């Protein structure tokens, strides 16, 4: 059971070890910027440190982390849109690496193109897609997380997938 | 279901998406940075000044209470003493009303053994100065004040007198009564004073004073008023003086010079009626008066008795 982070720093550290990849990846896909994603991930874990006593279970922690990460990342994105920084160049997006369970037989070129296409999506369809294919959540869970009707999630997914397929077909031909 | 109908999963494309959207590894120092920020937050939340444990003392002994009260009382007494002593030094001595007049003609030729003081004056509201004449008789009491005789045959003639001890005063051998050293000889007059008598004073005496005596001063007798140093009047001796301050204006202009201040040293040795005779300007006159007012003298003596004298004080302003 989760305890207060102040009571048990080791438990909090283990939670961070377990979820840091998930939190960072969601933030990275939404924000498209590693340093911004890292800052967002730090903010999320700081919030977790303060809130840990209120979270009832491991599942609750996981759900809370996903939800807060998405919201904080979108907040940052909107802040950045109000104060635009340098234009993003997806050509220099670093290759996924490390023990993230990437299948070895995946075409890296296809993955990079798909990432670029995902990054070009508007923020809500992009978030839905990330939660569906990065976190492998069901449309119901996504709707729950984003306070969105399941039908909306599914229509987002359907439209986004069709759009991506068309674009991918054109780009990868 | 409706949703499943429009939701068209494409296994191959979804596989590619799963692969492309695989989780990224977090930066290796993410946890360390979070921990550092948490520590910083904790440090910020702590108060900058550590809280103090309440000090506990044993019950106070009677001795310490006594000593404490005594020390406080002594401190208050010391403060009161300093304040009262300081205020004494600061407060200027009360100024007695003094008129600067030329008293030399009124000085007796052979003063008596008793202390001089007092005087008198009179007049009859006349336009011209009192006329020159001889002095009336000196007596211990006055029945008739000196006056110009207008009734040649009075029914009950009483000789006019002024109240003074039997001393020798400068007199004139003239037929009519008057003031011996008066320059006015053409018209018979008692002078512009009041209450009969002669001169500019009042109350039936001779001279500018107030009373039935002779000369400046009041309440009869003679020898009052302000004297001049010399002719038997010793000089007042300076006991305490302060250096005059420079005014800011004069200091900026490097202005130096001598300011002459006239002062009447009363019988107690205090300077009175301080005024500038030769001004220097640039605010130095006021500074000179301020300084001379704080002087303290041993009074001038005449015939063994302290008298008020008028004298000049030279205040030298110099920049070294």
Blueprint (SSEs and pairs):
The complex is a heterodimer of chains A (173) and B (320).
Chain A lengths: L8 H23 L2 H18 L6 H25 L25 H12 L3 H11 L5 H8 L3 H22 L2
Helix pairs in contact in A: 1-2, 1-3, 2-3, 4-7, 5-7, 6-7
Chain B lengths: L1 H5 L4 H10 L9 H16 L16 H29 L26 E5 L15 E3 L21 E3 L47 E2 L7 E3 L4 E2 L8 E4 L7 H6 L3 E9 L5 E8 L5 H9 L3 E3 L1 E3 L2 E3 L1 E9 L3
Parallel strand pairs in B: 2-3, 6-13
Antiparallel strand pairs in B: 1-4, 1-5, 7-10, 8-9, 8-13, 11-12
List keywords for this structure.
heterodimer; A: 173 residues; mainly alpha; Rna Polymerase Sigma Factor, Chain: A; Arc Repressor Mutant, subunit A; 2 domains; globular; B: 320 residues; alpha+beta; TolA/TonB C-terminal domain; 4-stranded mixed sheet; 3-stranded antiparallel sheet; 13 strands; disordered N terminus
Structure commentary:
The complex is a heterodimer of chains A (173) and B (320). By secondary structure, chain A is an all-alpha fold. Chain A folds into 2 domains: 1-88, Rna Polymerase Sigma Factor, Chain: A (Orthogonal Bundle), CATH 1.10.1740; 105-173, Winged helix-like DNA-binding domain superfamily/Winged helix DNA-binding domain (Arc Repressor Mutant, subunit A, Orthogonal Bundle), CATH 1.10.10. Chain A has 7 helices and no strands. Chain B has 320 residues and is an alpha+beta fold. Among the domains of chain B are: 94-146 and 159-224, no CATH class; 237-317, TolA/TonB C-terminal domain (2-Layer Sandwich), CATH 3.30.2420. The longest helix of chain B is centred in the N-terminal third of the chain and has 29 residues, at 62-90. The radius of gyration of chain B is 46 Å and the shape is elongated. Mean pLDDT of chain B is 80; it is low at 1-7 and 95-102. The A-B interface holds A 5, 13, 16-17, 20-25, 28-29, 34, 38, 41-42, 45-46, 49, 96-103, 106-107, 110-112, 114-115, 118, 129-130, 133-134, 136, 139, 150-151, 154-155, 157-158, 161-162, 164-165, 168 and B 3, 6-8, 10, 13-14, 16-27, 30-31, 33-35, 37-38, 41.
């Amino acid at each position: 059971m989760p305890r207060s982070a102040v009571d048990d720093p080791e438990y909090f550290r283990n939670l961070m070890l377990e979820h840091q990849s998930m939190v960072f990846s969601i933030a990275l896909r939404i924000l498209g910027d590693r340093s911004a994603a890292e800052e967002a991930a730090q903010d999320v874990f700081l919030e977790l440190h303060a809130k840990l006593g209120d979270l009832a279970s491991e599942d609750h922690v996981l759900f809370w982390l996903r939800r807060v990460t998405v919201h904080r990342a979108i907040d940052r994105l909107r802040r950045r849109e109000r104060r635009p920084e340098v234009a993003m160049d997806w050509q220099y997006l670093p290759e996924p690496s490390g023990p993230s369970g990437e299948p070895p037989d995946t075409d890296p070129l296809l993955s990079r193109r798909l990432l670029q296409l995902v990054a070009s999506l508007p923020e809500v369809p992009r978030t839905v897609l990330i939660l569906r294919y990065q976190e492998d959540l069901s449309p119901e869970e996504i709707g729950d997380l984003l306070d969105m009707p399941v039908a909306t999630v599914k229509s987002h997914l359907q439209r986004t997938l069709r759009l991506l397929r068309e674009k991918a077909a054109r780009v990868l031909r | 279901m409706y949703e499943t109908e429009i939701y068209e999963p494409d296994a191959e494309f979804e596989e590619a998406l799963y692969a492309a959207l695989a989780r990224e590894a977090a930066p290796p120092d993410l946890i360390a940075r979070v921990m550092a920020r948490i520590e910083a937050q904790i440090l910020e939340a702590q108060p900058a000044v550590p809280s103090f444990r309440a000090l506990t003392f044993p019950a106070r002994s009677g001795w310490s209470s006594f000593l404490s009260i005594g020390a406080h009382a002594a401190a208050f007494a010391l403060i009161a003493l300093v304040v009262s002593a300081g205020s004494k030094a600061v407060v200027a001595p009360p100024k007695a009303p003094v008129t600067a007049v030329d008293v030399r003609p009124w000085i007796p030729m052979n003063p008596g053994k008793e202390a001089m003081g007092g005087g008198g004056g009179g007049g009859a509201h006349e336009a011209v100065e009192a006329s020159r004449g001889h002095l009336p008789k000196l007596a211990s009491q006055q029945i008739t004040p000196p006056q110009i005789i207008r009734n040649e045959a009075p029914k009950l003639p009483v000789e006019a007198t002024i109240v003074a001890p039997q001393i020798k005063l400068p007199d004139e051998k003239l037929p009519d009564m008057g003031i011996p050293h008066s320059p006015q000889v053409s018209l018979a007059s008692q002078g512009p004073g009041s209450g009969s008598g002669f001169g500019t004073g009042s109350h039936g005496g001779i001279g500018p004073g107030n009373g039935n005596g002779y000369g400046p001063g009041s309440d009869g007798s003679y020898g009052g008023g302000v004297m001049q140093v010399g002719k038997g009047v010793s000089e007042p001796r300076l006991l305490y003086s302060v250096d005059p301050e420079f005014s800011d204006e004069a200091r900026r202009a490097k202005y130096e010079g001598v300011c002459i201040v006239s002062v009447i040293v009363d019988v107690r040795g205090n300077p009175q009626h301080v005024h500038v005779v030769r001004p220097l300007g640039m605010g130095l006159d006021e500074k000179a008066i301020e300084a001379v007012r704080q002087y303290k003298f041993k009074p001038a003596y005449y015939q063994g008795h302290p008298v008020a004298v008028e004298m000049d004080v030279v205040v030298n302003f110099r920049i070294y």
